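Postdoc handover notes: sequence design on the structure in folder B. Input tokens:
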């Protein structure tokens, strides 16, 4: 299967984000209940998205083991990725809705929002188009771009949480 090494690297990066989320939790004093509601949303979204990326990075391997053709592997993987993405994003909204005004909260980076908010929706569109074979033949490229977009949003959330935990407000 083409791009197997890239998928393994993405899986390792997702594991890294999940591991460092513990560091963020300690630095942010989440255990002591000192996190702002927006930080809680960022943290939970980051963890859920990183777990989704890990799942998506490993998803094509069982199809490969079954001996399916490349186009079938990426079509089925994309279809399952779209379903899992919708489920994860809907569950995040229903299970722990963000606080009112979280997009306009002080300290919220507009540049980070410009990437982190649309990236999962673009990834979902790529997964859906790849699963249906719309536009181009089913390929690893659209699947990988979708997975990397979601991984990028986890990294953006991780950096924002680190900035909150260690930023200028914490100094002194």
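Designed sequence:
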């Amino acid at each position: 299967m083409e791009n197997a090494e890239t998928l393994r690297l993405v899986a390792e990066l997702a594991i890294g984000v999940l591991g460092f989320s513990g560091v963020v939790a300690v630095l942010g004093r989440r255990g002591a209940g000192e996190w702002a509601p927006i930080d809680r949303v960022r943290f939970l979204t980051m963890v859920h998205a990183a777990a989704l990326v890990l799942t998506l990075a490993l998803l094509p391997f069982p199809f490969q083991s079954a001996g399916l053709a490349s186009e079938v592997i990426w079509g089925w993987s994309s279809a399952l990725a779209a379903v899992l993405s919708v489920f994860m994003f809907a569950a995040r909204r229903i299970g722990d809705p963000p606080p009112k005004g979280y997009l306009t909260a002080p300290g919220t980076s507009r540049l980070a929002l410009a990437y982190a908010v649309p990236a999962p929706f673009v990834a979902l569109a790529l997964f859906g188009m790849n699963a249906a074979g719309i536009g181009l033949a089913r390929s690893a490229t659209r699947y990988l771009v979708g997975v990397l977009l979601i991984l990028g949003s986890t990294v953006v959330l991780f950096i924002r949480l680190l900035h909150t935990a260690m930023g200028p407000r914490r100094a002194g």
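Context for whoever picks this up: Residues 81 and 87 are 10 Å apart (CA to CA). Don't rerun without checking with the PI first.
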